[in-house]
Amino acid sequence: MTVFASLDELRAAPPGTALGESGWITVSQTDVDRFARATGTDERDGVPPYMVLALSNRLLPEVVEVRGISSGINYGTDAVRFPSPVPVGGRLRARAELVAAAEVTGGVQTTIRVTLETDGGETAAEIDSLSRWLA
User: Fold this and answer.
1) Domain spans, the chain
2) What is the pTM of this model?
3) Is the pLDDT score of 44 beyond 90?
4) What is the CATH number of domain 2-134?
């Protein structure tokens, strides 16, 4: 895990900074069924890609933390790709890299490239996640 002690430390981090990896999670059939009920989808061939996307928000806090802020906001995403499927019962973890940190009113907006990989080494998703870290 990478911990930035302040917004100034985050601002100073160069693009391309590796932020680390999360722990592994297993995506069960029960998880998939709950997601399907919540979204009204019927996925029969593995873990739905948008569920994989949603899991990035579960895993990213294991990889990066910014201290000395009033709040951190999930601001959305830029590019999102799903190059490989995730089988039900498969395991995922996140790797993250700082792509950019830009000044915004009241703080810093980051683009963090989150790569979700399976325990077989396949890339399940690559997400450019946008976050705002406010003073």
Assistant:
1) 2-134
2) 0.95
3) no
4) 3.10.129.10
